[in-house]
Amino acid sequence: MNSVFQHCYEDLHELTIKRDSASECYQLVFLLFPEDTVYRTEDLLSRHSTKPGLWRNHGRVDNIIFFLNGEKTNPEPFDDHPEVSKSRFLFADPLMPILRTEKGTIQQQATAEQYAGKLDALYSDKLLSFNKITRPSSLSAITIAATIRQQLSGVTKSADIPDDLEFFSSGMDSIETLFLWRKLKSALNLLTFAADIYSCPSISRLSQFITKVISFQAAERRGDLQTVGTILDHYKGEIDNLASFIAVTSMASRTFSHIVLLTGSSGSVGSLF
């Protein structure tokens, strides 16, 4: 195909096809554009970080956003980073100024490496903050409501939200909803979804919902244990019956012309020796 990865910016390259007489039978695109010598696919790719020779797709050239200051950015990875918390801003240290070129533009890679330690500490602290949440000693309707009230106050910076008032009527936004869900998930060790907060958008309704979920999960775990116990008792009986059958049957009185060993029979017929 005579494909060439042409550098675009940073680690992104545009896939292009250069016209070549030796590869003409494979370069059908030039049948549509006979006057062109190069076909630009406008696909952006980057080298795979661990697999040499392989490339990863990163969107299209026309997806790139050009800012007035001349900077470029690819919006494709934005979905992986939907928000930046107010507590995650890092101001430049006067003793560690942002590095610039002779033209005055910022040396992005060098500056990022210079601040790598501070950035890592900043985000590791965010992860630890969820682990530091105090969990209630017991899970009841009262303690669950108190936990929701406490975490809601921390997220919205408001300590006087009535139990029956809807969160969004008091100005709560989608980012705060996501943070509240994360904190409740950590505090209550509960498998729920952020959408549940939209369905039950008040302290009283959400506490009732979570109480029901906890009761259901506890009953489900008890049911699983009962099922496992029943299966275990069944096979214990089968093993006892097999042992008594072998004891009654006199193996010594029987003669065998062949001995067969079957291995690996868990997932197929097995190997015969």
From TrEMBL:
The keyword Glycosyltransferase does not apply. Residues 139-214 form the Carrier domain. It comes from the Eukaryota. Gene3D superfamilies: ACP-like. Keywords: Phosphopantetheine, Phosphoprotein. PROSITE patterns: CARRIER. The keyword Glycosyltransferase does not apply. This is Carrier domain-containing protein.
